[in-house]
Amino acid sequence: MCLGRVCACVLLLSSCQWQEPWHDVQETRFLLGTLVSFTVYSNDEEKALAAIQQASAIMQSVEQSFTSFTDVDNSVQRFNHALAGEVITLTADVDGLLRQSLQIQQQSLGAFDPVLGALNQAWAFSEAKNQQKPLSADLIEQALNVSGVLQLQAVSGMKWTKNKNQTQLDFGAIAKGFAIDQGIQSLQTSGIEHAIINAGGDLRILGNHGDKAWKVAVRHPRLKQPLGWFDIEDDSSVVTSGDYERFFVYESKRYHHILNPKTGQPADKNMSVTVLTASATLADAWSTALFVLDVETGLKMVENMPDLEALWVDKHQVLHLSSGMKKMFFPSKAH
Ligand code: ADP
Ligand code: MG
């Protein structure tokens, strides 16, 4: 009898030890040119860590497929280095994201353009140079002449060609979102139900945070305190494009890395745009597109997309919210 009771206690103790409490398992990696933090809300730390490892490897492989900066041999670089008329076969990922980008280019009336590589390179915001000067009108014109979706020709299947030697693809405004989506999908495949992948402020959420929603702060484009926050759960992404990420100031004017494809100049309608929608790919692309457009034009587009909401801080630092956003966003007291 007595022995039986001891056994029951031991069993109870060991089962208690197995019951890991629900908690945040966190890891940070340098990926996609930024710090990416993975948070998995789990009661199995070992499983969560293995899932994060797998997701981060997948995100790294997305980065390798799309990067046009380093000397990686990927299909984007093969296309960018090809001569006019040469037929290049893109990989399935790149072909798929290019087709999605071309659709958004049309929907955004050309504000988002995945064929701006030559123009982006001419401005060189990616190379951290001091004393940078704005690009001359001549150089802007030269770059615009070889940029834009009209320079691109679909041949068949995943084969593409271009009209000018210098024409280049650039997925800088969408690939980070795509990588986040792939990372979340990988976590789900590993059996994770509650997580957040945050790539330098651009993030996607899976599930919830226990009995609470995840709280997401939105950065103010000029001030240190947040602009406000969202309470969100389930499959949602929040992505911001701002003029404070990569910029230089020349003769008191700010020049930054989001370009207006029509003028070749940094877009000058907004300081930041935040998009909330399920897909991080779409949130990334649309935050860039809406950043280029004026609020009125962008707002009309957003109101026609039922599952996408946005908030703008325009060039006068005035906050604008789409109708759905008004129900989810809590501005900080200062605004
Ligand atoms: P971030 O890279 O800071 O997250 P974005 O998602 O807005 O910001 O992407 C900006 C990058 O996208 C630029 O560095 C450049 O590579 C590319 N880009 C710039 N202007 C445009 C545009 N109008 N359409 C598509 N891509 C753009
Ligand atoms: Mg973007």
Walk me through this protein's architecture.
It is a single chain. The protein is of the alpha+beta class. Among the domains are: 75-162, T-fold; 213-335, T-fold, CATH 3.10.520. It has helices spanning 2-18, 45-66, 75-81, 92-107, 117-123, 137-145, 175-189, 280-292, 295-303; strands spanning 23-31, 34-42, 88-89, 152-156, 159-162, 195-199, 202-206, 214-218, 228-232, 236-242, 247-250, 253-256, 270-277, 309-314, 319-321, 329-331. α2 (45-66) packs antiparallel against α7 and α7 packs antiparallel against α8. The longest helix has 22 residues, at 45-66. It is globular and about 65 Å long. Magnesium ion (MG) binds at residues 173, 241, 284-285, 287-288.
Quick structural overview:
With 335 residues, the chain is an alpha+beta fold.
